[in-house]
Design a protein that fits this description.
mainly alpha, 5 helices, 0% strand, globular
Length: 87
């Protein structure tokens, strides 16, 4: 799977899914799995409205780093920029 295909899949799955759900899917799609770097790289390409500083703050997510950011904290951190389903 190419990087562009990964980005397209992330974009397509985001509306109606949480940031955690999309990140976990990224773990199955990215060549190196779910890492701090893959989150920044692919989320920035798929969701360019998310500030880089916010994605760097997401490094504290307990699933990819030693920080104390829980799943709900990770979702809350990204929520202001997260795509929602169109009505």
């Amino acid at each position: 799977m190419t990087d562009d295909e990964i980005v397209a899949q992330l974009r397509a799955s985001a509306p109606g899914s949480s940031a955690v759900e999309v990140a976990l899917a990224l773990g199955h799609l990215a060549p190196d799995g779910l890492t701090q770097g893959s989150i920044v790289t692919y989320f920035k390409r798929a969701f360019p409205g998310i500030p880089l500083r916010t994605l760097l703050d997401a490094w504290a997510w307990h699933r990819v780093g030693a920080g104390g950011l829980s799943d709900s904290d990770f979702d809350a951190l990204l929520r202001p920029w997260w795509p929602t389903k169109s009505r």
